[in-house]
Design goal:
about 150 residues; mainly beta; Sortase, Chain: A; 8-stranded mixed beta barrel; about 5% helix; globular
C-alpha cells in the first residue's frame, strides 16, 4: 500500500465537466498556479490508498471550477503513460478549510479532489471522493515494469 515511486506524469480527465489537465507533484502556490497538484505522500494513481489532488476553482486555469456539479457515479479518470485508472464518484462534502483533511484507511485505490468553496473565498474546502473501477474501465496501456 502507499505511493510506489515518484508521482508519474498524470492527466486528469473529468468528462462531465470538461476537465483535461496534467497534474503535477505538490500543492504549493506555484504548482497550483499551473494546474492541479498531487498532495505529497498520498498514493499514486491506481495504487491502494488515497490519491489526493488539489485544484483552484476560480483562478489561474481553474481546473476544479465545476467539481461541485459532480454526483455519485460520475467518472474521474487518471491517465499515466502506463495505465488508465477510472474512478467513480462516491461522496462529496464541504468542510472548514482549517479542518484536518481526512483520508480514512482503505484497502482500495481511491481518489480525492479538493478545492476552495464557495468561490471567491477560502473559508471551506469541497472534497469529492471516488473509488477505482475494475477492468475493463481501468486497465494498463502497456505492460507495467516490475
Amino acid at each position: 500500500m502507499g505511493r510506489r515511486g515518484p508521482f508519474p506524469p498524470t492527466k486528469i480527465v473529468i468528462p462531465k465537466i470538461g476537465v483535461e489537465q496534467v497534474a503535477q507533484e505538490g500543492i504549493t502556490i506555484k504548482v497550483l498556479q499551473e494546474g492541479p497538484g498531487h498532495y505529497p505522500k498520498t498514493a499514486n494513481p491506481g495504487v491502494i490508498g488515497w490519491c489526493a489532488i488539489a485544484g483552484h476553482s476560480i483562478t489561474f486555469s481553474s481546473p476544479f471550477d465545476r467539481i461541485d456539479e459532480l454526483a455519485k457515479g460520475d467518472l474521474i479518470i487518471l491517465e499515466t503513460l502506463e495505465a488508465r485508472f477510472v474512478y467513480s464518484v462516491a461522496t462529496k462534502e464541504v468542510q472548514p478549510s482549517n479542518a484536518t483533511f481526512q483520508m480514512p484507511h482503505t484497502y482500495q485505490s481511491r481518489v480525492a479532489l479538493t478545492t476552495c468553496t464557495p468561490k471567491l473565498t477560502s473559508t471551506h474546502r469541497l472534497i469529492v471522493r471516488g473509488v477505482l473501477l475494475p477492468f475493463p474501465q481501468s486497465h494498463y496501456l502497456s505492460e507495467p515494469e516490475l
